[in-house]
Amino acid sequence: SGALKKMTRANFVSGVGGTNAPFFKAYMSANQAVSNTTSTTVAFNQTLFDTASSFNTSTYKYAIPAGYGGKWLFSFMIRKENFQASRALAILLVDSGTQVQDIECGGYTDYGGASGSTVLNLNEGQTIYINFYHNGGSSKYIRGVGSHETSFSGFKLID
Description:
Layout: H1 9-13, E1 23-27, E2 32-34, E3 40-41, E4 46-50, E5 55-56, E6 61-63, E7 70-79, E8 88-94, E9 98-104, E10 113-122, E11 127-134, E12 140-142, E13 151-156
Antiparallel strand pairs: 1-4, 1-13, 2-12, 3-11, 5-6, 6-11, 7-10, 7-13, 8-9, 8-11
């Protein structure tokens, strides 16, 4: 019909928006030792939330759920536990080790951290996870005191 509708809130917002879901946030429940000059998968063994139950707390990887391929925003923070190194970095990996991003946090701060975010176009079933590397001279720790320390999160963007 060619009739004009009265502009009401219900008519205005109909069909607008969407939900940035599914989403997750994982973290470590304790400090984790990382050997010198070794890229080690960060042991995110707890989830604060995981709406699609797709974060594996045994392998520390998030699998893109069925039906949710597309653009995703991922964020992470890896915090050092009282050590200095000329190189310390967080490495974001997809599937069996394809590196998609790394963030350096070297320098000489004892409790500094590597944090970052990125948007990736992933297919359902692909996995994403984080490794940490340092050259601090011996085995060192990354902090895992709670969900506010070393954490990893992501959500599906609205297309």
